[in-house]
Specification:
Length: 395
């Protein structure tokens, strides 16, 4: 029996279990949008594989009866060193998914980051939770519209702007091309896609019917009508600006009074430039392997960037984080916290707000164990001493 077809118990125990539940519940087009990467998906695979190769150093006979998982990121107290990363089109995975995820994040004491291309708008998310959330922005050709989005986010109480900088051009995501998420489909494939959607009546009831309006909540003026693949692609092609340079950060600073985070940094020189230009934090990111394939995994890029930045800014990381052990490894290599995207997307698709809450609880439990068995009592004390040098690892 193929592992994809094995029965899954009613109590998912890991992010991997939630991925399988999401695969079963979502139409193929939407699951592949979450699950896929660019080109041959080598970088996406490396993000996870390189984390697996890092070994934790087990230590014993230390008093680890009290273990602290809380930290501070950009002046904000977090109960876990975790942030729910911006995920585009999330409201297509579950009914008003961004609202559900924001509520779960607030309850868990961690930030939620709203995507520019979310289904639920800034104001809807703000009305659903009393915890300030972060807002993610692309630098658009229409700067007036981008300025309006920043004003809306600040009016809603957002204090952190996450500027995504690795989308000067859009990488080819072959799963999306095959499924029609990128480009148009011939008539026969449209019929096949329609049949696939019909085979998922739970999704149809919950999202297609119960999750309306399925429009881009932050882009209703820019992308009128339903959030169809064609409308989304047309907006991307017209608005993602390949002429953006470092000088444009001054424009962002003029329009944003809070903290600024640059997401999509993969090179130490770019990290140093980001800090010199006034970034409060950077996210070491290759867009989850969804942009340029065959670039380094984020965990291998992290140490050199941490060294280049020093204490001038906070360094966060995303890409391949699937467990609390992964979070511990990243913190040991110098990250302040980790952004998770696919884990919460799988969870909200599978079980809505309860799923996101549960995934965060899973990560907490895994981190508790990792700290206890590495002899560390506070995540803020994690460093390379919690890891075994790969050159010394016989396995």
């Amino acid at each position: 029996m193929n592992s994809r077809d094995r029965p899954l118990g009613l109590a998912p125990a890991s992010v991997r279990d939630y991925r399988e539940l999401a695969r079963r519940r979502l139409p193929r087009q939407l699951f592949d949008y979450i699950d896929g990467g660019a080109y041959e998906e080598a970088t996406m695979a490396a993000n996870m594989a390189d984390l697996r190769r890092i070994r934790l150093r087990q230590r014993v006979l230390r008093d680890v009866s009290v273990r602290k998982l809380g930290t501070t990121v950009l002046g904000e107290e977090l109960s876990l060193p975790v942030v729910l990363a911006p995920v585009g089109l999330a409201g297509m995975f579950a009914q008003r998914a961004e609202v559900q995820a924001a509520r779960a994040a607030a309850r868990a004491g961690v930030p939620f980051c709203e995507s520019t291309v979310s289904i639920c708008g800034i104001e809807e998310v703000a009305a659903a939770t009393d915890r300030p959330f972060w807002y993610q922005l692309y630098v658009m050709r229409d700067r007036a519209y981008a300025e309006d989005l920043m004003r809306r986010a600040q009016a809603a109480g957002c204090r952190v702007l996450v500027l995504t900088v690795d989308l000067a051009v859009v990488g080819a995501r072959y799963r999306d091309v095959r499924n029609g998420m990128a480009g148009s489909l011939p008539a026969m494939k449209k019929l096949v896609r329609g049949f696939d959607f019909a085979r998922h009546p739970g999704w149809v009831r919950d999202v297609a019917l119960g999750g309306k309006p399925l429009t881009f909540g932050n882009l209703e003026k820019a992308v009128p009508g339903a959030s169809t693949p064609d409308a989304f692609r047309a907006w991307v092609d017209s608005q993602f600006d390949p002429s953006v340079t470092w000088d444009d950060l001054a424009w962002v600073r003029e329009n944003w009074a809070g903290r600024i985070v640059l997401k999509g940094i993969l090179d130490p020189q770019d990290a140093s430039e980001a800090v010199a230009r006034g970034a409060d934090a950077i996210v070491v990111s290759n867009h989850g392997g969804r942009q340029l394939d065959d670039v380094p995994s984020t965990i291998t890029a992290l140490p050199a960037i941490v060294e280049a930045v020093g204490d001038r800014a906070e360094v966060l990381v995303d890409g391949g984080i699937r467990s609390g052990l992964d979070v511990v490894k990243a913190l040991a290599l110098g990250a302040r916290a980790c952004l998770i995207g696919r884990p919460w997307a799988y969870a909200v698709a599978a079980r809505g707000e309860k799923g996101v809450t549960h995934v965060l609880r899973i990560l907490r439990g895994e981190m508790e164990v990792a700290l206890g068995l590495t002899g560390v009592t506070d995540v803020r004390d994690l460093n390379r001493s919690a890891l075994i040098d790969l050159s010394d690892d016989p396995g």
